[in-house]
Design brief:
Blueprint: E1 57-67, E2 74-76, H1 88-92, E3 98-101, H2 114-127, E4 130-135, H3 142-155, E5 162-165, H4 172-176, H5 183-200, E6 205-212, H6 230-238, E7 244-249, H7 263-269, H8 273-288, E8 294-299, H9 316-331, E9 336-339, H10 359-367, E10 373-379, E11 384-390, E12 397-403, E13 409-415, E14 420-429, E15 436-437, E16 441-444, E17 446-449, E18 453-459
Parallel strand pairs: 1-13, 2-3, 2-9, 3-4, 4-5, 5-6, 6-7, 7-8, 8-9
Antiparallel strand pairs: 1-10, 10-11, 11-12, 12-18, 13-17, 14-15, 14-16, 14-18
Helix pairs in contact: 3-5, 5-6, 6-8, 7-9, 9-10
């Protein structure tokens, strides 16, 4: 099955990812500082009169903002995960559109086999989506990477266009005792691998560098043993070859002694993305002189296996946090996003266990009702985020509202100045409802949003 690439024109240095075909893969990260407060934008003086935005939540369908890349609805999956027969229907109905394979560190400790590719592509076909495959860098060779590409596309008859090389090279030295891996060595190796793969197929799209924990504060970003910044040095050396700039981010834990954040720390951490994305765009322009697409290829609130608390990655609060993060990334035209990860029996960061699903699964289901073409929308409530889009299948306007607050709220709501709004479908995900349609209703100037909820409206 040919896979299309939808790019527009234009993630404690402590934890070892032990993996085998039957073992769980664990994301890695470094110790983080406490979350800083969001910086408010500085108002720019203008001589032109400025029309104030409406109070509360508003949508302007006449102001089109471009297409939403379906590759933002992604997850990490690998041979170390098991999608059971019980979970096959859940995968079918997940709303996922993109798979990163083999996900996490597994691909730098194992060579991919043809039967693993067959299983992968069966899942890709299930979701009618797309895929990116990572060639083994640590312990691999450029020739092996080229052979993998040949096996997948030429021998097996697939048409995988999206490829990356290695996973979190910024942790090879500290986590895998690979002393030679500094920025210079990595950049040289990455280029050799890329050149070998492009010699097989010059039309593939290459993602990189997949470093860990990029943030807005560059002093906190990963540095090699010589103090050189992994992202900047990569872009200097390979900005001419990379097609999509990729990195990973987990805001928690900030300390090993306290792996789970408090409720407000988790709730508020989604706001960091309003600074991270502009920062990575700035760095790309400074180092390459051009704009490049952006992908966040591992992302969750917490990289540890912690589960069972009100703020671990398997909590309802985390599912709402994820909904808000994804909305902010979509608003900023990020091209690829792959949540970590699809399945694990015990680790909280997975959206599925062996036989069922965890709350974050329903976040993806809610987004599956959202349209494809963004239109202008805004909110003056800090904890209410709105994202609106027109749906191609029926031209319906869809409006997604996320309430990160614990408390229900009633907010003013209007669409293009019209306060009376006819809603044919109202989908709700909250502490009681799991992405369920509550039917039609008429709104008269305001909307009620449950606490810790997602509400999606289909507007007539």
């Amino acid at each position: 099955m040919a896979k299309r690439f939808y790019l527009p024109l234009f993630v404690l240095s402590l934890i070892v990812l032990i993996a085998g075909c039957e073992q769980a893969e664990v994301p890695t990260a470094v110790e983080q500082p406490e979350q800083s407060e969001q910086i408010e934008a500085t108002e720019v003086p203008t001589e032109e009169p400025v029309t104030p935005e409406p109070a509360g939540v508003w949508v302007d369908p006449s102001n089109s903002l471009g297409e939403i890349n379906p590759l933002v609805y992604g997850t990490n999956y690998g041979p170390w995960q098991a999608i059971t027969l019980e979970n096959m229907p859940n995968l079918d109905e997940s709303g996922l559109k993109f798979i990163r394979f083999p996900g996490g560190r597994w691909g730098d400790t194992h060579n991919l086999r043809d039967y693993q590719i067959r299983q992968l592509m069966a899942h890709v076909d299930q979701i009618e989506g797309d895929v990116t495959i990572s060639a083994r860098l640590l312990g691999g060779t450029p020739e092996q990477a080229a052979d993998l590409l040949k096996m997948v596309n030429e021998e097996m008859g697939h048409d995988v266009r999206l490829w990356s090389i290695g996973n979190e090279p910024s942790l090879y030295r500290t986590m895998q005792q690979a002393e030679e891996w500094d920025t210079v060595y990595f950049n040289e190796q990455w280029r050799q691998f890329a050149e070998a793969m492009l010699a097989v197929d010059p039309d593939i799209t290459i993602l990189g560098p997949n470093t860990h924990q990029f943030r807005q504060d560059e002093s906190l970003n990963p540095k090699d043993a010589n103090g050189l910044d992994w992202m900047r040095e990569f872009l200097k050396a390979n900005g001419d070859m990379v097609d999509v700039v990729t990195f990973h981010r987990y805001p928690f834990p900030t300390s090993l002694s306290d792996p789970s954040p408090d409720r407000d720390a988790l709730r508020n951490s989604s706001e960091e993305w309003d600074e991270i994305i502009p920062k990575i765009r700035e760095v790309i322009r400074e180092e390459t002189g051009k704009d490049l697409p952006i992908g966040i290829m591992e992302i969750n609130s917490n990289w540890t296996d912690a589960s069972g608390s009100e703020t671990t990655a398997d909590s309802h609060l985390n599912a709402i946090w994820w909904a808000d993060v994804l909305a902010r990334l979509i608003k900023q035209d990020v091209d690829m996003v792959t949540h970590f990860a699809l399945q694990n029996n015990s680790a909280g960061w997975a959206m599925m266990n062996r036989t069922g699903v965890r709350p974050t699964y329903y976040t993806f289901q809610m987004y599956d009702h959202l349209g494809e073409s963004k239109v202008a929308a805004g909110s003056d409530e800090r904890y209410v985020t709105v994202l609106a889009a027109e749906r191609a299948s029926d031209s319906a306007l869809t409006v997604l509202l996320i309430n990160r607050s614990d408390d229900p709220i009633t907010v003013p709501f209007e669409i293009a100045g019209e306060k009376e709004i006819s809603v044919s479908e109202r989908w709700v995900f909250d502490t009681e409802l799991n992405a369920e349609n509550q039917g039609s209703q008429t709104l008269n100037g305001s909307i009620d949003l449950p606490g810790l909820s997602m509400t999606l409206l289909v507007v007539e």
